[in-house]
UniProtKB/TrEMBL annotation:
This is LuxR C-terminal-related transcriptional regulator. Residues 759-824 form the HTH luxR-type domain. InterPro entries: P-loop_NTPase, Sig_transdc_resp-reg_C-effctor, Tscrpt_reg_LuxR_C, WH-like_DNA-bd_sf. Gene3D superfamilies: Winged helix-like DNA-binding domain superfamily/Winged helix DNA-binding domain (1.10.10.10). Keywords: DNA-binding, Transcription, Transcription regulation. Pfam families: GerE (PF00196).
Length: 824
């Protein structure tokens, strides 16, 4: 018999048996939680000892009275011998008394008695035996043992390291087996155990009492019994079934209780989502229909596929002429939208509108269509959806807010202002005010008044939290905040993006590619280039980028060109040029302009690069000045200086004053034009302090070249060293090589302090992305789970893992995990 992770326990028992064979007998009390593998351990030990020639006896505990051969007195065992008694917690008192007598005189005899029992069951009954014997506690398996035991189980936490449960993970009738096993352990308390499983990860004793129909006092007593049997645990008044697998399987086989659980929770004013979770698995009776109709608005705001099914069941349970049907169908349509089924929501809304519903329902459906169109950055479609209602008079407040947003996307600020004024007449509606806060924040971003924009977003956040909630507006508020943080070079932008990511994934539409674009631009700016490329990959892997393909390709092109991968950089740049941005993507036009200029410089065509800069200065160059930001223009200033067009660079810097109040960036550009080394070094330090490593590296690079031109070799080497440390962290090999070439052209010999590249092997050879993959693989995650966690494709993770194994000389993921643990 093979036991994983129990080698120490088997060794301990074997040593005890060896001692007994020479006359040093003992009583060993093995204790463990239910299902943790005591029976398997005792059987393996008995088998091994018999194979070694030791006589072995197995003493059964017979249900229901718990009688054993020891109940009638001590049997005549031929010694030396091993006696094994499993399930001692079920044994009768006579057996325990007999064991007590044996234990008092066992030392000096060639006899080893090994017992197994559930820890926590009537501990007072066994206190005396524990004192006379040797106690050996069996603990859950460690992660390596679980993975060895069940290769198809990704994480030990799935079954708490419980061998019995793990052995049934893939069984077709697992739920039935696990429920029967748990019911046998629970005994008369099985109903309370079922209710605890149905209530989810935790429930109060009061809730358990209400749902199971007992008093709180009786529920507390039952919880204590279940806890002693290792089935539940109670912490600070909250009760939960100990193992997730047990909880899931008992809940699966107890579905018939869901309806009564829902009613009990409703009577206690439990959260709507919690009640709905049970109703989704229960028959739809009259009470359930009434409850769903009364809470439909709350359900749809935080929807899921389960809520969609619940609303569908409620509609199906009503007769076609029931007055509640139209509102419930509208609620289902909204639920489809918020749960990520936008196309289904669009079709459902159009179908219901054909029946010419009453104004309240019609307005809700038009709002769904308007949200979808705006969310796809298709303002023309949104305006056409709202046009028929506009012909009937003034738009209702929420539709007017959607109208304002659509006009804003088209760039028609006058029409936007009219729609905002129309919506503002209903400012007492919290949700409409949220729309207006987000629209005002966009306008203030365009006017570069970021503090005012954040004030509007703060107000929207408060309203969304306490007065009204709509997933699209919550997400819009978070994404706009991330945009402002990006513009202000605030590292908190990454936290904001991660907060928004789950909702963006749920809704989809254009929000998700926009989120990937914001994240990619932020990671580019903060020097996290591996993360930026991962965001690009994730965005481009979506079925539709809603205009964001251009900015995403531009980010990839910028990074790859700086890293020296010119063919790939060129390919992304060409794809960026071919993309047709629309909606929000037009705000990222400057990024694509810079990419074109950068690539021209790399190709050695400084004339073409300078022409792009001149087009920006003189005519916008496809980069509207009211949407430009100074940091994007810095590479253009550098191109103009490199091309000997300092006057052009000076004019661009002066134009930047119209677009930005970023003093450090303006100072840097002026220092570059004037070859002011001290100011360039000060700018490099300022950028480093503000977490802008690329700008810091470029400023130090410019200072190094200026110092070399002035004949100050030692100072040039020092500035160069500061630059390449930052470039190396981003793997910007092209920039390292380019700077070294400039310095050599001025006679500065770098020698051993020349370009430092990342080593090819060992831990230091890993990129940031590869290191994150290693950490997750070492936790036992599969490649698919790693991909989901890092928001990249499985193929990308496969490539990372292959490279990591090669760089570290590992032959398997297990060896990789071991090396990672040793390194820590």
């Amino acid at each position: 018999m093979t036991l994983h992770g129990r080698h120490e326990s088997l060794r301990f028992l074997a040593e005890a048996a060896s001692a007994a064979m020479v006359g040093q007998g003992a009583l060993v009390m093995v204790r463990a939680d239910p299902g943790l593998g005591v029976t398997s351990l005792l059987e393996a030990h008995l088998s091994a000892m018999r194979d070694s020639g030791l006589r072995g006896y197995r003493v059964p505990v017979l249900p229901p009275e718990g009688r054993t051969p020891l109940s009638a007195g001590t049997p005549e065992w031929e010694e030396p011998a091993l006696v094994v008694i499993d399930d001692l917690h079920r044994a009768d008192d006579e057996t325990l008394l007999a064991l007590h007598d044996l234990a008092e005189g066992i030392y000096g005899r060639p006899l080893l008695i090994v017992t197994g029992r559930h820890r926590g069951v009537a501990p007072d009954r066994f206190a005396g035996l524990d004192r006379l014997g040797i106690v050996h506690d069996l603990h859950p398996l460690d992660e390596d043992a679980v993975l060895a035991m069940r290769p198809d189980v990704a994480r030990a936490g799935e079954a708490g390291g419980n061998p019995w449960l793990l052995s049934r993970i893939t069984a077709g009738d697992r739920a039935t087996q696990v429920s029967a096993w748990a019911a046998g352990l629970a005994g008369a308390d099985v109903d309370l155990l079922r209710c605890a499983a149905l209530l989810g990860e935790s429930a109060s004793v009061d809730e358990l009492a209400a749902v199971s129909g007992t008093t709180p006092s009786d529920a507390l007593t039952a919880v204590a019994r279940l806890s002693a049997r290792g089935l539940v645990q109670e912490r600070s008044g909250e009760v939960q079934v100990r193992h997730p697998v047990v909880r899931t399987d008992i809940a699966t086989t107890s579905a018939g209780l869901r309806g009564s659980v829902a009613r009990a929770l409703a009577e206690r004013d439990a959260p709507v989502a919690r009640i709905a979770d049970h109703l989704a698995h229960a028959p739809m009776d009259a009470w359930a229909v009434r409850w769903v109709a009364e809470h439909a608005e709350q359900l749809t705001a935080r929807s899921s596929p389960k809520v969609v099914r619940l609303l569908e069941s409620a509609v199906a349970a009503l007769s076609p002429g029931d007055p509640r049907v139209p509102a419930l169908r509208a609620a289902r349509t909204e639920a489809l939208l918020w749960s990520g089924s936008a196309e289904q929501a669009r079709r459902a809304a159009a179908e219901i509108l054909l029946a010419q519903p009453d104004p309240p329902v019609r307005h809700r459906l038009l709002a769904v269509l308007g949200i979808i169109a705006n969310g796809e950055f298709a303002p023309g479609t949104a305006l056409s959806v709202l046009e028929p209602e506009r012909r009937n008079g003034k738009l209702p407040a929420r539709l007017a807010a959607l109208d304002a947003y659509a006009h804003l996307l088209t760039g028609d600020l006058e029409a936007t202002a009219r729609a905002v004024a129309e919506a503002s007449e209903a400012a007492d509606e919290p949700l409409v005010e949220v729309y207006l806060c987000n629209i005002r924040a966009i306008g203030q971003c365009l006017a570069r008044d970021y503090s005012a924009a954040l004030e509007q977003l703060d107000r929207a956040s408060v309203l969304l939290e306490v007065s009204a909630y709509e997933p699209a507006q919550w997400l819009m508020s978070r994404l706009l905040r991330a945009v402002v943080q990006n513009l202000e070079e605030d590292p908190a932008v990454m936290d904001t993006i991660d907060q928004a990511r789950p909702v963006a994934r749920s809704i989809g539409l254009g929000f998700l590619p926009w989120l990937h674009t914001i994240a990619a631009v932020a990671a580019l700016k903060f020097g996290e280039w591996d993360r930026a490329l991962a965001e690009v990959d994730a965005g481009l892997a979506l079925p539709h980028q809603h205009g964001m393909a251009g900015p995403l390709h531009a980010v990839a092109a910028t990074i790859l060109v700086n890293r020296g991968d010119l063919p790939a950089g060129r390919e992304h740049a060409e794809l960026a040029d071919q993309a047709v941005p629309h909606g929000v993507a037009t705000f990222y036009q400057p990024l694509m302009t810079v990419t074109r200029a950068l690539l021209a410089g790399v190709d050695g065509d400084l004339g073409r690069a300078v022409k792009i800069v001149r087009d920006v200065v003189e005519g916008g160059g496809g980069m509207p000045t009211d949407r430009s930001i100074a940091p994007v223009c810095v590479p253009l200033v550098r191109i103009a200086v490199a091309g000997g067009e300092r006057d052009l660079a000076r004019r661009l810097t002066e134009r930047m004053l119209e677009w930005s109040h970023d003093d450090s960036t303006i100072t840097y550009c002026r220092s570059l034009i004037a070859d002011d080394v001290d100011e360039l070094l000060a700018a490099a330090q300022a950028f480093a302090d503000s977490s802008a490593p690329l700008a810091a590296a470029q400023a130090a690079q410019d200072a190094a070249v200026a110092l070399a031109a002035a004949g100050r070799s030692d100072a040039a080497k020092a500035a160069y060293s500061a630059a390449i440390d930052k470039f190396a962290a981003m793997a910007a090999h092209r920039e390292i090589d380019r700077t070294a070439a400039h310095l050599r052209a001025h006679g500065v010999q770098l020698g051993a302090s020349g370009p430092r590249r990342r080593p090819k092997h060992g831990w230091d050879s890993l990129t940031g992305a590869e290191m994150r993959v290693v950490e997750l693989v070492a936790q036992g995650l599969t490649n698919r789970e790693v991909a989901e966690r890092l928001v990249v494709s499985v193929r990308t993770v496969d490539s990372h893992v292959s490279r990591v194994l090669r760089k570290l000389g590992c032959s398997s993921r297990l060896e990789l995990a071991v090396k990672h643990r040793e390194r820590r």
